[in-house]
Amino acid sequence: MSSLKQKSNKTSSATTHGAEPRGVGAERQVVFLGKESASADAKHNSPSHPRGKPSGDSKSIFNKETKPKIAKTKSIQGPLEAKVYSQKGISVGTISLRPEAFGLRWNSDLVHQVSVSMASTNRRGTAHAKDRSEVSGGGKKPWKQKGTGRARHGSIRSPLWVGGGVAHGPRKEKNYDRKVNKKVKAKALLTILSRKFKDGEIIFIDSLNFSEPKTKDAKTTIDSWKKIEGMERILGKKTNAMVITLPSREGNTFMSFKNIGNIAIDEIRNINPLTLLQYKSLAIINPDISLPFIYSKAGIEAELIKDTEKKKTTTNTKRKK
What we know:
This protein folds into three domains: 2-62, no CATH class; 80-107 and 177-303, Ribosomal protein L4/L1 (Ribosomal Protein L4, Chain: A), CATH 3.40.1370; 125-175, no CATH class. Mean pLDDT is 80; it is low at 24-37, 57-62 and 67-73. The chain has eleven helices and six strands. It has helices at residues 2-16, 22-45, 99-102, 108-121, 182-198, 215-225, 231-235, 251-257, 273-278, 287-297, 300-320, and strands at 80-85, 91-97, 202-205, 242-246, 263-267, 281-285. The longest helix has 24 residues, at 22-45. By secondary structure, it is α/β, with parallel strands linked by helices. Strand 1 (80-85) and strand 2 form a beta hairpin. 15% of the residues are buried.
C-alpha cells in the first residue's frame, strides 16, 4: 500500500510541475503529428506544389518552366535574284534562282557526314606492310628445338626478329569506301551552294571565251573579276581561291587556267561537295545552261515535268466535257 501511495504522489507532483502522464502526452503527440501530416498532405496535393496532384490533365506533373525555344532558320521560300557579269567583270543583268537550290538553311551535320564519307572513299589505301609470310627467307629453322639453351624459334622472319615481318601492320586489301545515298549527297551539295550564295561567294558569268590558250589572258580575266564586290579579297588568296565551272569542256579555256595555282576549272557535271568545300568561291559560267543541272539535283526538273503532265490531263478532261 505504501508503494502505491508513493507512485500516486509522484504522478500528482509531475502534473503540478507541468509534466503530463505518459498516456496523455502520447495521445496529444499523436493528434499533433496527425495535424502536421494532414497539412503536409494538403501542401503536396495542391496544384501549385511541384509534386502535387494534377488538376484535370495528368501530364501536368511534368510541366516545368522551360526557356523558350529558338526557332531554327528555315529555307528561303521566295524567289532569289543574282547579278550576271561579263568576262570583263561588268554587270550585264540579273538572273532569278530557285530557292530549292540556293535558299536552303545550313546543315553542318549533313555536310560533315557527306564530306568525310567522300574523302574516305577517295582514299587509295596503298599503305602495305609485309607479314612473315611475305618477307623473303626464313624457310629454315634457325636451330633445333631443344638442347641449345636458347629460346625456341621456327623462322628468322618472325615479327620478334629484326628484319622479320610486321604484325598487325597496314594492308592494301583494306576497303575505305563509305556509301552515301544519292539524295543525301545532292542535299549536301545544295546546302553548300546555298551557304556560299548567302555569303556572296558565287558569281555568275555570261560567257568565257579565249581565242587561244594563254595564261596571260586568264590572269587579266581574273584581275577584272576582282572589281566585283567581295571578290577582291577572295581572288587575292594564294591557294584555293576559286573553282570555275563550265557547261562543257572547252580546250582553250581549260588550258588558259591550267597553270594558275589558286584557280581550278572543271565541268559543272563534275561539281561535288568536297570541291566546293576546298575552294573559297565559285564561278558559274553560262548560267542558262549550267543551272538546269544544279536544279536537277534538287529534283526541280521532275516537278516541272509533273506539273506539265497535270496541265495536259486537265486540258484533256476539259475538252472531253
